[in-house]
Amino acid sequence: MKNVNRSAVKQRLRSYKKHPFSAVLAMLTILSAVITAGILVFLIGYILVKGIPNIKLDLFKWEYSARNVSMTPAIINTIIITALSLVISVPLGVGSAIYLTEYAKRGNKIVKIVRITAETLAGIPSIVYGLFGFLLFVVTCGWGFSIISGAMTLAVMVLPLIMRTTEEAIRSVPDSYREGSYGLGAGRLRTVMKIVVPSAMPGILSGIILSIGRIVGETAALIFTAGTVAKVPASVMSSGRTLAVHMYALLSEGLYTKQAYATAVVLLVLVIFVNWLSSYAARAVSKR
Amino acid sequence: MKQFKEKLMNAVFMLAAGTSIFVVALISVFLFANGFPAIAEIGLFEFMLGTKWKPLEGLFGILPTILGSVYVTVGALIIGVPIGIFCAIFLAKFCPKKLYAVLKPAVELMAGIPSIVYGFFGLVVIVPAMQVLFGGSGKGILTASVLLGIMILPTVIGVAEAAIKAVPESYYEGALALGATHEQSVFGATLPAARSGIMAGVILGIGRAIGETMAVVMVAGNQAVIPKGILSGVRTMTANIVLEMAYAAELHRDALIATGVVLFVFILIINLSFSLIKGREGR
């Protein structure tokens, strides 16, 4: 087996001598892949190496003060905003995907419009979501800079992501499952709820986890909706900064580079974990 | 009873599907209703083509920021697109299976890293590097372009790889059978067939670059003047909004929202061309 491989490599090297341009192209593709992977490894490595020594116990004190620059309130805010956003966006996103895949008839005009609008939503930059959230929730609804304004804005932002991943997951459920269910006399609703959605669950979860990653990393959409107060909020109507906003605030104040490093480590580790979890869930689908 | 439940849930799901239509309408209405009066008051030409952004003096020309967004986006494309496309080709046609199992998740992780972390990375790594290489502050079009070029990589790679993989294997095999090398077959037969899909990836990358905010704010320098060279500082439309929204009031605030409207229209145009190209691919 090894011999075969070696002779194949030899053959290819010989062909590169005959076709130098092919060799150049091969090198360019390999180089690009190395650059891409190299950047990622360097970015993660650099932040971990520089950041981990800056993680001090002080940074996790319960109360924030200008002296300890604790990130604990920001972590708590992040969890609250993530949970609230998902409570709003998951039912809407999953329900919408169920309609598109299971209920809508082929060639339905509504489906087309929903697709176009969902794609539009996916392309809107987060700062525009921030402006929209500011105008609608903060000003028009009169909720002010608050956790609820931020969560509503982010719920809108991750809606297209949840819709798309759920749709893909539901579409990958074989038709024989549905036929089996109908054949046993179940109605459409029962088939959807008891057969289709449970089978698609890992894929749906993977999409939800990805949205968590988006919410955790979001800054621009939150500054003018949830605000930048560095406290554990008294209620959903009070302002609170998430971890990413906390990091932005540290950087724009310019005095806290070390603490920013530490925050970057926490954010990065969180995002890596979330990504791993999401692909783990997605793998569970493909295994079946 | 069962009939009623089925009908009810049908309506509920339909309502959920309607959310995205409703939300897009809501976003459009709120942005346009708040942005248009400002544009009308400033004057469309003064607003879009005015070269001075001095809110304190009542000058609201966003041309410098429009140009800023265009420059850093073009710069990002020059850096990100070739690397992205070649990397996509590597993933689709050159990569050994074991390496693919590592590289693919790595690219996906790149898409998940928060923009504030990219911005911080730019600030502590790329900016000092630029200071050493070219002197000056190290913040400007070039720095922002490099950082945005990196940030659009996963978008370009993802879409381009899918497009290349969607090309029937017979194209590649046919070229190979005619005596072409592996590279000649990939670049001469497969790649042209994936052209429109790759183009769609590039357009999506444009959308990402032009809408990026937090990373650009950190490294672009943020001077609201028309830049003189690729090393001079620049302010994008997105940076303009995020920097001044916190303390803006009255016409100043509305002018920033109007900047958001211009950005929104840019994005709508980009989205439209994306779906047009994707639609053509489907045929």
Strand content of chain B: under 5%
Q: Which structural class is indicated by helix and strand composition of chain A?
A: mainly alpha
CATH class of the largest domain in chain A: Mainly Alpha
The unreliable regions of chain A are none
Under the CATH scheme, the architecture of chain B is Orthogonal Bundle
CATH architecture of the largest domain in chain A: Orthogonal Bundle
CATH homology superfamily name of chain B: MetI-like
Give structural notes.
The complex is a heterodimer of chains A (about 290) and B (about 280). With about 290 residues, chain A is mainly α. Chain A is built from eleven helices and no strands. In chain B, a hairpin with a 4-residue loop joins strand 1 and strand 2. Chain B contains twelve helices and two strands, in the order ααββαααααααααα. In chain B, helix 4 crosses helix 6 and helix 7 runs antiparallel to helix 8. Chain B is globular and about 70 Å long. By secondary structure, chain B is mostly helical. Chain B has one domain: MetI-like (MetI-like fold), CATH 1.10.3720. Classes of the chains: A mainly alpha (about 290), B mainly alpha (about 280). Chains A and B meet through helix 2, helix 3, helix 4, helix 5 and helix 6 of A and helix 1, helix 3, helix 4, helix 5 and helix 6 of B.
